[in-house]
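A common beginner's mistake is to predict each chain separately and then try to dock the pieces by hand. The better habit, illustrated here, is to supply every component at once so that their relative placement is modeled jointly.
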Amino acid sequence: MQVQTRVDIHSEWGIVAARQAGRKLAKEIGFGSVDQARITTAISELARNIYLYANQGEISIEEVASAGKRGMKVVASDRGPGIKDVRSVMEDGFTTSGGLGAGLPGVKRLMDDFDIDSEEEEGTTIISIKWLR
Amino acid sequence: MHPSIKESILEKKDEIVEQWLEEIEQFRYEDYLQNISDSVYRSTNREFVDKIFETVDLCSDDVYERISQYSERLIQLGWPLNYITRGLQSFRQITVETLSNTGDNYCYDIEFYQEIESWIDNLINALVSDYSGSWENTVFSQKMALKELSAPLIPVFDEICVMPLIGTIDSERAKLIMENLLEGVIENRAQVVLIDITGVPVVDTMVAHHIIQAAEAVRLVGAECILVGIRPEIAQTVVNLGIDLGKFSTKSTLKKGMATALKMTDREIVDLASK
Ligand SMILES: Nc1ncnc2c1ncn2[C@@H]1O[C@H](COP(=O)(O)OP(=O)(O)OP(=O)(O)O)[C@@H](O)[C@H]1O
Ligand SMILES: [Mg+2]
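With all components supplied together, the output reads:
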């Protein structure tokens, strides 16, 4: 049952495809419309960051279960330039691209679990989970 | 093509055709061609195999020319490209097999295979290029059509315009929204623009950023923006993202936004019957 869906991100169409796959799975798992929107928006942020800063990478989504809870896991990974200072990118308003700088801190608030692993010149992997309640 | 090879191919034509027509029947059910009537199906296959034989000793340029009218018809009929490439591959296989069975000496020649390969490859190339050309045309015209309905600015009352946004906003569309908004505001001498995002599936930081920038630009040309059609779940995600939309006015529905816009331009809607 635990199937993983991967979407390649190398153009803006990939962002849309990842979002659509995410919304579909969130609905299947049984998330309500607000959480569906939260998950979809989080995927959109992660996918767009991949497209903007790493050029390409992938989003994979799957259903997870732990200690009687069910949830949806979203993993964004790329082999792009990585993030030098992880702490500062998690601050609201930090941006290197003239954006709002709201993406990553926003994803952390939209989802329940959030874990970022980034190595300069190696790439970035962000794992986040939303739990069903 | 070497004359003796061509001669043997033509000699075996009937045998090859018969085998091929039989073989290709199998693909029909896998390739979504069930909706095509038997007679059209048979005659198209017939014509297909005749075309193949017609091109037996043409050079690649002539192949393109000879095949283009026929491929146009196939495209219109909705014949899948997959069916055609598989058909040509099986044709090649049958031809090689049939000729090998004659036991003639040339069959052991590498040249023999190369001739047949290049004959069929030319055909595949010509058909694939026609098909992809037609897809590119389709994609191009759909893109144009999409662009046209991308971000219309509709004047609804004197000084009031509405821009309904429907569908995903990518960076190209965001640019168009900005352009149409500014041009339209000036052209229509609008005082108030209502941007309706009811039909936008996801409002992420990029979309929000573009809307904020558009609203600021509209203010610079002397008008005001009201953001309407904010669904409850969108309101929540925007708050979660930490985006502050407090700087400009927002209304949940277009109807409420319109009432505000009228008030801002010193007007109101009155019910004549109740007077
Ligand atoms: N996958 C990534 N690889 C490299 N750098 C990244 C990646 N994702 C984010 N960053 C860096 O982190 C910064 C903050 O990202 P965040 O998504 O929070 O804001 P933003 O993309 O700049 O603007 P917004 O998302 O609000 O439009 C980015 O400006 C970029 O420098
Ligand atoms: Mg971002």
